[in-house]
Amino acid sequence: MCARRRRDVCHVMPHGERSTPAPINSDSHQPTEPHRQREQTSQARNRASSVIPLQSTTSREKMVAKEAMPLLTPHKLGQFNLSHRVVLAPLTRCRSYGSVPQPHAALYYSQRATKGGLLISEATDVSVTAKGYPETPGIWTEEQVEAWKPIVDAVHRKGAFFICQIWHVGRVSTNDYQPDGQAPISSTDKQITPEPDGRHDAEGGVVYSKPRRLQIDEIPAIVDDFRRAARNAIEAGFDGVEIHGAHGYLLEQFMKDSCNDRTDEYGGSLENRCRFAVEVIDAVIREVGAERVGIRLSPFVDYMDCYDSDPHALGAYMVQQLNKHRGFLYCHMVEPRMAIVDGRRQILHGLLPFRKAFNGTFIAAGGYDREEGNKVVADGYADLVAYGRLFLANPDLPKRFELGVPLNKYDRSTFYTQDPVVGYTDYPFHDGSTAE
Ligand SMILES: Cc1cc2nc3c(=O)[nH]c(=O)nc-3n(C[C@H](O)[C@H](O)[C@H](O)COP(=O)(O)O)c2cc1C
């Protein structure tokens, strides 16, 4: 299945970022089923056709603005009234020195904030053992919570909503990141396979350490770390949390059968493998309420040696679990892969069964541009579209989409560097300015 197609199809970079996709045979393009037409989508189209073009735009831009722009229509996300559907995807930026969020993050996030927009924060460590990358922020100490507050305030001052993505990397770590040089924890004691040249991936060059399999009686404490992180996120002022259940990190290390080799109640059957994730979801919901909790899942993605022999069943099972919680904020899923069809990158819309099954707001991510984003919102395939690399490089992405103006190119070499400005807050707006 897709999961076995590994890196020859779509090389996934740190955090599930996809490099330029390697073409796959266009014959393998799966025709999508007719998309569910949602009432709100036709409303969206009606509203879109009445968008009033800005005075300052050229006539070509005006035409673009006047055309259907489903991405720029409102959406009610639980209690939050979004004014558009262009979401900032979670993006690790490795600039939180000593695990403490820094003042420069206030500028970075507020540059990307718009009135009624939705931002998802970079993955944020739930505990001291959760870390696997340099200078990622945490949210388990009072100092970290206090440091997040002005950042969240800066986003709120712009009128945007801000969700904190909380994660534990599990075995995607090394002893160096762990307290007292201990082994990273996981569902398993299997190490991520080092690349033959001794480097795990093209960017990080990391050989991840051999993990230590969690004992059953240790699991409740890790679940509790997620609960505490969620409480702290709300305390810091975030509007909600996104549980990181994607890209081969701890939740997936339990969920996916390439990795989970346990024989206890956390391994074996699908239900058992999902038990840890379900416990985390339940604990976080009990703490802050379903209306403040979303989740990111990537059943199809094969990253960090984490893939599943039946991603359809895995995704369907998880959606069933989410549906048990009335008012669950959103389900955010990462697209399986991209294909080149007739010379153009195309998204295969493999998430459709999950979108159909999930009762609430559905966010799609992975490889979207303006055109594909508008298409999937118009078709009812997704309610919201999360943009990673394009938003990273274009702080005013929704405005650029509205105007149809060219986009800045992202600079991959500064994705994970520690400079507080370069490659972070210095991407220009469409009018050439770099400040807010
Ligand atoms: C620099 C960078 C950092 C990322 N960090 C995270 C992260 O912290 N959490 C996460 O779930 N995904 C992370 N991702 C994946 C993105 O959220 C997104 O799914 C991916 O970039 C594909 O979307 P795109 O084609 O719009 O960029 C990261 C991607 C990049 C490029």
Largest sheet: 9 strands, parallel
- Tell me the strand percentage band: 5-15%
Distance between the termini: 45 Å
Bound compounds, each kind once, are: flavin mononucleotide
Tell me the number of helical segments per DSSP (H or I, 4 or more residues long).
13
Instruction: From the alpha carbons, calculate the radius of gyration and give it in angstroms.
Output: 21 Å
Instruction: List segments where confidence is low: pLDDT < 50 over at least 5 consecutive residues.
Output: 1-14, 17-58
Number of strands: 17
Helicity range of the residues? Answer: 25-40%
| Average pLDDT figure | 86
What class, by secondary structure content? Answer: alpha/beta
**SSE order, as H and E?**
HEEHHEEEHEEHEEEHEHHEHEEEHEHEHH
The coarse silhouette is globular
Question: What's a concise summary of this model?
Answer:
Residues 71-408 form the NADH:flavin oxidoreductase/NADH oxidase N-terminal domain. The chain has 436 residues and is α/β, with parallel strands linked by helices.
Key structural traits:
436 residues, alpha/beta, nine-stranded parallel beta sheet, 13 helices, 30% helix, 14% strand, binds flavin mononucleotide, oxylipin biosynthesis
